[in-house]
């Protein structure tokens, strides 16, 4: 078993809930080293995502990823919309015809998402960006696949690694984005993009219920 359309839709509903719940945290993180709009922008974007997902049926996980990408690009301001949108579009291209996403598909989608963010943002590990959460997430997902982990295990490994990667951005000096203008003063603060990335992956890994059309659906092993 893996992540089918219903499970992916439910996962994005959980993402919207988690981002909304952490809106103020993300605003505060971004206010410290950016312009303070990351939490508000993502909350607006994922609220729109929930509405888009409820408007009709979806044929495949890739279609869901593309819909979410286009919605975020059109509704999220700043750098976050294009970066998240590009990540999801690349992920969709990595699993174009899959009815369900198995462990290898999840790892491939994450790797493609990382490639998209790197290409769009021209950032690398250590720059204090969302890449610092995605790089360890991809590595952990690929290790979990190599160890024979099921879909749930791969998502859990990616989530835990992204959480650690986000925390480890605190001592870094930003080299990309608005935070880079602060130079050494950017050290001592979590990167908001890395934190939101960890929240998104955590929502995907969570087995919690969702108020979507498929409540309680989760990616299965």
TrEMBL record:
PROSITE patterns membership: DHAL
Name under which the protein is recorded: Dihydroxyacetone kinase, C-terminal domain
Pfam families per record: Dak2
Limits of the DhaL domain: 6-206
Any one GO MF annotation of this record: kinase activity
Keyword NADP carried by entry: no
SMART domains per record: Dak2 (SM01120)
Keywords: Kinase, Transferase
